[in-house]
Amino acid sequence: MDDESDAIVIGGGVVGCAVAYSLASCGLQVLLLERGGLAEEASGAAAGMLAPLAEAHGPGPFLELCLAGLALFPSLARELEEATGLDIGLSRCGLLRVALTDEDEESLRRRYRWQLDTGLPLTWLEGEEARAVEPALSPGVRAAVLSEAEGQVEPQLLAHALARAAQARGARVLLSTPVLGIVRRGRRVYGVRTPSGIVRGRQVVVAAGPWTGRLLAGIGLHLPTPPRRGQMLAYRGRPVGRIVWGPEGYLAPKATGVTYAGATVEAVGFRRRTTQRGLRRLQRMAHTLVPALGRAEVAAAWAGLRPGSPDGLPIIGPVPGWDGLSVASGHFRNGVLLAPITGRLLAQALTGQPTDLPLDPFSPARFLA
Ligand code: GLY
Fold it and tell me: 333 CA distance to ligand 1 centroid (A)?
């Protein structure tokens, strides 16, 4: 740990692993520090949906980022498999957005209009047509949009594959190594403090999920990344073959033979535990979309803490006015989808290449007066 790295990445979630992979792919000497194991926080709790049309509320930079994120996955999956032998479970299973009420249908139709402009293959279905595609859907579903290009991945495998591929490109990955603070001289960051001493790096990238804000606060920077708890559960069985996205939550059938139901969004600080209330809400949502799940056994329940941001958009890029400090956090509900594009954009920015997309809308600058 004594030599200086070109870049230290703090955080071994999907975003940190993707940043480490992209930086190592650009030839930088990378050190990734993770206080526990890889993908043990939000990345390990995520369903792994690759659903750019789910969270964007209309055209704009965030939608562009999400679409660019999705587009990277097919080649990334091949690259990672070649480099590591790991299959990240990329599935283009498709996604059905469903409407249960008049109001839902109106909102689905409004979204469908601008979503068509993305060029992704989308089909409007009436209720019966939707049930012909997914027979287990509730008779209460009155309309749906079938989106065939959206899908999912296994987030833990993705994080592990990215970390291993980064290692194959020379990165070092140290687990069980907490970062206690960022070290600096004035506004020049030159490393991090760990329990075994200072580790030097020319660049420090903070990708520590909801703990990012705390690390930055330690050097006087106010860039909040508040935790947003998401509770999830898994039913045994797979009554649907596609992701089903309803107004109150989603169902994601997994290759292991279970169906995930998610997720709550709760501002409860760093309390990562499930609650009876949260799980009951998820069960109500799941049974409303697919009544057969009302008879299915719940195999597991868990929760994770997503990193929020003050405006709901990710925070990606060098911190203006500082030397050697960047952030990759605040991805809220989109960490898995956006991890590879985040790594790629940040690596482009830090190595002086033109970025695939403008980083300004996501720059930490927007929170720093
Ligand atoms: N990506 C969906 C969620 O965070 O619940």
Answer: 4
